[in-house]
Structure formats: C-alpha cells, structure tokens
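Model the whole thing, not chain by chain.
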Amino acid sequence: MSGEFIGERAGPMAFRELTPVTFLERAAAVFAARPAVRSGDRLFTYAEFWDRAQRLAGVLAARGVSPGDRVAVLAPNTHVLLEAHYGVPLAGAVLVALNTRLAPQEIRYILEHSGASVLIVDASLDAVADEALAGEHPPLDRIGTGDYERLLSEAEPHRVPVTDERSLLSINYTSGTTGRPKGVMYHHRGAYLQALAMALHAGLTPESTYLWTLPMFHTNGWCFPWAVTAAGAVHRCLPKPDPAEIWKAIREEGVTHFCAAPTVLAMLADHPDAGPATTERPVKVFAGGAPPWPSLLRRMTALGIDIQHLYGLTETFGPAVVSIWQPEWNTLPEEERAALMARQGVANVIAEPLRVVGPDGRDVPADGTSMGEILLRGNDVMLGYYRDEAATLAAAHDDWFRTGDVGVLHPDGYVEIRDRIKDVIISGGENIASVEVEAALTAHPDVLEAAVVGVRHPKWQEVPVAYVTPRAGADVTEAELIAFVRDRLAHFKAPRRIVLADLPKTSTGKIQKNMLRERASSLADDLGES
Amino acid sequence: MSGEFIGERAGPMAFRELTPVTFLERAAAVFAARPAVRSGDRLFTYAEFWDRAQRLAGVLAARGVSPGDRVAVLAPNTHVLLEAHYGVPLAGAVLVALNTRLAPQEIRYILEHSGASVLIVDASLDAVADEALAGEHPPLDRIGTGDYERLLSEAEPHRVPVTDERSLLSINYTSGTTGRPKGVMYHHRGAYLQALAMALHAGLTPESTYLWTLPMFHTNGWCFPWAVTAAGAVHRCLPKPDPAEIWKAIREEGVTHFCAAPTVLAMLADHPDAGPATTERPVKVFAGGAPPWPSLLRRMTALGIDIQHLYGLTETFGPAVVSIWQPEWNTLPEEERAALMARQGVANVIAEPLRVVGPDGRDVPADGTSMGEILLRGNDVMLGYYRDEAATLAAAHDDWFRTGDVGVLHPDGYVEIRDRIKDVIISGGENIASVEVEAALTAHPDVLEAAVVGVRHPKWQEVPVAYVTPRAGADVTEAELIAFVRDRLAHFKAPRRIVLADLPKTSTGKIQKNMLRERASSLADDLGES
C-alpha cells in the first residue's frame, strides 16, 4: 500500500511548537478582563499583561536584541520580572533571572558568563548593579525600572515565533555552594510541560490566587510564572517573603496557593499574626527543600494550610518529584501520616519514573533501606550547563541526570532522600545520613532547625557534629539533645558535639553545610579518641 | 563564539517522546496498589492494569501484529476496550475502536478500510461481528472476550517504544451523517497533551472516580482513557449508560466526574431515581453536543451536578473548546448565567486560540452577531483522514482545520455555535440558525427536544419546519408552540409547521437532521405560497 495517505505530510494544522509563551497568548484571549497580576498597588488584566509582554519584546528588539541573545533581569518578585518571563522569549531572547541576594562580584560573573547584552534592574537594586558593573566590563545595555513604564508605552508590540521547542528559553544559574555558579539551560518544551504539571498537581484554576513567596529568580519560580497563567489564576507579586505580609495576603486577598521552603513555613507558623486562613478550603502550599517535620505539619493544618512536599533541582525545572497524597492514608495515625508526607515522592505527571542507582550502577531494590543516587530523565530535564560541556557530561550517567542526592526507594515506589552525596558521614565504615540525625533533632520540641556535618576523627574516620537553632525562648542543653537522639537512633549516629547557634544559609534559604564543616573542623581536636 | 556548548547536543536526558502510554507506566509506579479500573464485579489496581496492558501487547505481538498494524476492537465500555487504549499502542499498533451501534455492513466497511489485522470482539457483540464478517473478506484474526483472560495469562508482557510522537496512535471513524465514515488519525503527541488538558479542566485528582458514560469508541472517549490514568483516578466502566445505573454509581460509588450529551443529562434529570449526589462536592459533568438549556441546568444544580459545556469534533481529539466558567459570573441572574454557559467557550489550555472566519476568508469581528466558520489548529488536531488525502485537504483552510460549524465570537472571546454550515436555513436572503429556533422551542416547559430544518419554498427559497418531542405527560399544541417562538424571535424565524414526534438519532446520540430533512420535504407542498 505504498503511497497511500497516512498523515505523514500533515502540516501545521496538527502541530504547534510547545512554548509557555502561548499560555499568556491564550489567557489574554480567554481571561482578557480578569485580574492577572497584582504588584504593589498596580493591577493588570490578562489583556494588559499580554500587551505589556509584547511591548517589552518591542523594547528589547528596538534596542538591538536578536533571537538567542541573553537578557538579564535583577529584580525582586515584581510584575517586571514576571513580564520578563514572557517578554524576553517573545523577543526570541533568553532570560537570565539573577538572584538578588548574590554578591556584586557573583552577579558580574554571571553577566559575563552568560554574555547578557541587556540588564534590567529594579530601582531597589541599583546600588548592587552599580557595584557589579564597576570598572571595565563588556558593553551592556542597562534599563532601570524608573524608565520601564515609559519605554513600554513608547514601544510597539513585538513577537518572534518559536521555531524549535527544544531551543533555549532561559538560563538559571545555580547558587552553587562550591565553585562557580553553573548556568542551567531551560528549553521551551520542558517549561511548557512542567507548567502544565505544576498547574495540575497544585490544582490551579481561574479561581486561584497564587502568592509569589518563592523567588522567580530561583529555578524560574518552579515554572509557576507559566503555570499560574495557564490556569488563568491571579499572580500576587510579593517583593519580600515577609511573614506579616504573607498572613495579610492570605487573610485579605483570598490567596489559595504558594510555594515555600520549610524554613519559611516555620517562620510563618511562629509569627504573631499566624491565624487560620479565611478561604473556604485550605491554602495549598508546595514545600521544597528539607522535609516538613511533624510538629510543623500539625501546626500548619491547624492554620488551614495544606502542605504538599516536593523535590527537584534547578536542573529539572524545579519539582520533578511530588509527594502525592494517597487518599487511603487519611485514616492513618498522625505520626505515620507525617512520615509518609516527609518522603520526597514520585515522578510528577510529565516526568519519567525516577531511578535510584547504587555505587555498582544497578538500581537498588525498593526496600526502603538500600541507598543509591537518584537519577532523573525526560522532558523536564535541562539541556545542559551553558558553555560548560564538561560539567554537562559529568552530570549525566547513561543518558540519565545525576541529582547528587542519595535516597532510598520504598516498596510503594516513593523515594526518600537520605542525603546529598557529599553530606553522607562515613563513621567506622557505616554510612550516617546527616538528614536522619537532623530529623531526630528537630523532633525535639525546643529545636527550630538543625544541621549535622562530619568531622574527621582518628579512630572512626568521621563522627557527626550538630549545629542547632533552638526555638525562641526555649531552654535546652547540649547533653539533653544528645541523650534525646541516642534514645531514637543507633548510638554511633548521635552527634559527638552539639553547638547551639544560628545556621548560615544561601540566598535561597539552603543551609550552607560547607561553612559549618569548616567551623566544625576546629572542634576535631576536642572530640576524644574513642 | 562558534563551537561553544549551548545544549544543541543534549541527548535523551532532556527528551522523551510524548505518548499517553507513559501515563499508565507512571501510574503503575505511583499508584501501584490503588484501584484503577472497576468493570462489572472486577477490580484492577494500577499495577494490574499496566501488567494487563503489556500482556495484551504480548498477545498481539505473538499473533504477528507489527508496528503500524491496525487492531480493531468491538466492545462496549468495559476493561477490555480500556486496556486496548494502552495494549494496542504498546504493541506499536494503531487502535481502531468500533462504534458498537453501527450496522454490520458499516463495521465491515471500517474493518476493510482500516485494513485491521486483528479484531477483538466482546461476547455481547459476537452476532454483529458474525454478520459483519459474513462471506468473503480479507484475512482477520478474531479474538473473543471469552478467550481474552486465558490469552492474557499465557502472554509475555511486551512493549514497543514510541520513536516518533507524531506517529499514528489510533483511527476514529466518524459516524458521518452523509457518505462513508472517514478515519480520523490521532497522533501520540496530541492524545498526550489533550489528556493533560482534560485532566486539568475537569480537575481530576487521585481522589476522583470517573464514570464511563461516554462511549470509549467515540473520539477515544475524549481522551479520558488517558486523562483519568494520568491523574491516578478510578475508571468506573459502564457498558450501557442506563440512568438507573448512573444514579446508583453516583450514590453508592462516589463518582465525581462523567461526560455526557445533554440528551443523556435530560434522561437523568427526568428519571425516577434522580436525587442529590452524596459526594461532598458537586459531581462534575462535561457536556458536549447541544448547549444545555436553562431548565436542565437548574435541575442538575439542584441534583448536585455541576455542568461544564464544551465543544470539539472527532478531528480535534474531542473538546478543543471549553466553556470555562469565570468566577465573576457567579453573582449574575440565573438566565444570564445559563446564556453564558450555553456558549461553546474558549480554546482549552493546550489548544491554539480559535478563529471564526467569514465567507470572505477574513476573521469576523468579535461582536456576538457576525457569523463565520470556526477554524481550529494545533497539537490537538488530527493528522488527517486515513487513506483519504483529498478529504484531508478539503478540511484544511490555510493550515487551519475547518470545523464545518458556523458561530459567532462574543466580545469576551467566547465562541457560540449558531449552526452546522449545512443546517443554516436561508430564507428570503436571511440566514436562520436552526439552533437558535431550537433554543426558543426548548425554552418552552413542555418541550423535551426540538430539531429545526429548512424546507424549500417557492417564494422564500427555504422556510423552517420543526420536529419536537414533548415532555412525558405534556399537553401542548403546534399552534401554541409557533406562537411561543413568534413571541421570542423575528417572525420569519418561526417554524411554518411543527411536527410532534420522536427524533431520529445517530449511534452517538446526534439528531439525524438529514433524515428529518427528507421527511420534511414531503411537507413542502402544504406550506402555502406566502
């Protein structure tokens, strides 16, 4: 039957390049007059949002930005950064959202490494930008937010079509605790699919209001700049994740969703303004980072906040793994529920089922105890590290992305992270997952946060040492906490020393264990020889 | 900067072919022990569903089915047809789900036209299959459901990877009111994206139970065989959409979602078992076909059923257009709400914004009155008609798919269908949308259903004639109904004659206007000359 028609030549009728830009194009048609963006005292409808994004593309094109050029933005969570998530790709350019908490020299490095030709700077960060650009540097067209409205109003709407859905959409520089930041390359197809997955898992609808607590410069806000728009929900911008502001927005503006690290949730739970949300249904929170602990979960439930734990990396467009709640678990005792929710979870709806691979390169059994590195693959994995093929190759293992996280696979298919590969403490030939010891410590009612690192030891190679932040007003001693852990874990896992102190953190709220390791090394001589 | 790494060579790490088969692969990993399929008194978990689908692929491969071969299934909404939605593509083959209400000679035509090499037949349809295959016909391997369990248990799990997401997944033959059925070709990519869109718009979650009232052989069940699985919800199979069975399932099995034509909803509303659903939240119903009328909407709301109107064609993987409810409309008076809900709506989240194009080939203004043909395009449009390039070309207009439906675009971007192109009545140079006259008729409390067709007329070219089914027990006259319409519409739009009768329907529940037109032509001589 050669030559018969089976659709091989079906043209554009049946095909459109996947790009998250189309979510805004559609929202502008479907939700034209609905509120899209609340930012400070400004409110934009979806028709306005789309018009502004196209005008931003016009501004960039008029200033000589060509397809493939990099456009950097240094701004907190305002409408400007949100508009850049559409306006920059509408110009055919590549968005580089800069972490506002970086030091000027780090920003300078990223600007140079990305080769950005334009930098848009929020007025509040002008001084940082000045310092980053002090002295000689490659030519860079700087746009201040003071000029932004005038430039938009003078510009013509502009749009460069996406001709390859696997082409570069944005570069997200990792906050790298060691070495230089690496530029994670996002493609249009991945951002489109990840946005759909986030909208579906979060249950975003046109009735939702999403509060921008998670920085948009962090992993492109887990693709929520696109997911919220796909659903036709409201973006409520929030330049600083201040707990009082968050509670106010929840109470007075009908916020239904936000994303946050457990440390932000802990701040919220302890804040004097904490009180039940007033929306009909619980506020849904996506929590990344460390697993939320039982007392935090209990407190948040009482406050009308429903936490969903998830896991991902900059390299995976944010949450590739979601701790999906199975309805059958509702009737379990609280502690079991908390233990189930603390697991990182399962592949999200568009992600490929994950693997956990042992040092021998084989998949570990799903027994809840065999540890291995978590591997991910699929449409929500980065193209690679920008201008760093060697690092890209090093991150891949047989076409799977190596997360650098060590975990176990439970019999029901849920993965639970035990530790970063480099944070595993090896003591007397036994592996100690620092996360496990930290969980034992935070189970103590007086402990707000804990971090455990390994310190070299003449007999055991390494022993664990803990840094603990007590809760405000708590009165707890090192000996008490060590005894508390020894009651719960094998004794060799209990910290040899516990230091009560504030914990150093990166700009995205991650505890900087490398700094703690340095500090702890000075304790090495005082740990005894047995 | 030639030769620098910007990810062009990123391999399979960042790419996976889109195919809805992966939704079941993932569900089997994520929801292994959860109920997946209830069919009669059988219950399969997601692990079992995945195993059975792979075994079905093994059965087919062992019988010589090669990638690209067509496998036909003649079955009502049972687990067998559901499993075929995965097992057939897992064998690399193309699913042809046959309409069980077709005449044997129509089934024979489709088997021959598709060149199916295997036919799976449900025992209840053996006699139909016998008749379809009577006499000489090309070789066909027939599998009866009586042998199905044994064959599955003896087979090895099998899987042919999808190597091109735009390749053929299934062929859905239209029930074509005129001419031979045409084979609409679905691609993996379109079904994957449409399934995500359906899951998102329906709000499917792992806590949902989807009742299979819509035939799976119709447009592959609007892609719900894949959408329900993507969400990890329960498929509740229902071989016949019997109202008593539907009410029972809603009350006793926690059904949260189903799809239905308004005629099925009308049957449900009038059924003696009708009573409020017992789930906490309203049951969500996707209603295709004719717009649900105000009295039906009111009745269904009282019964705890929340109707969402939508629109699509076999050629668009089902609902390409969804009548999204805007929260701002909640406070409008009931009649306005019903009028808004009666509109077909807006592009679904993965569909390209639709167009309405007048006879001059230009987009009509969005004024709610200018009529034009609705055009659709994008990833949820078919590859074309199988082995019919001429029909495929005829269905395209500048790379847009011509729906054959005439509608208007409202100022808020919502489309409202006025009529099928061929159902528009031209009377004295004026266009009369038969749908508008039908809506006026069904607004009468005694009218269950109405169909309006044109009849040739010496002076006006055509005049409208109506066929009306009164509600059970109603006592209404032709003159009364004509007066009722004249009170509401321009007088030239009122039917010249109204015949009280049951309406002929296709196997998918569509009113067969071509048959009514034939019947009505006999009235032509009695319509007078003025």
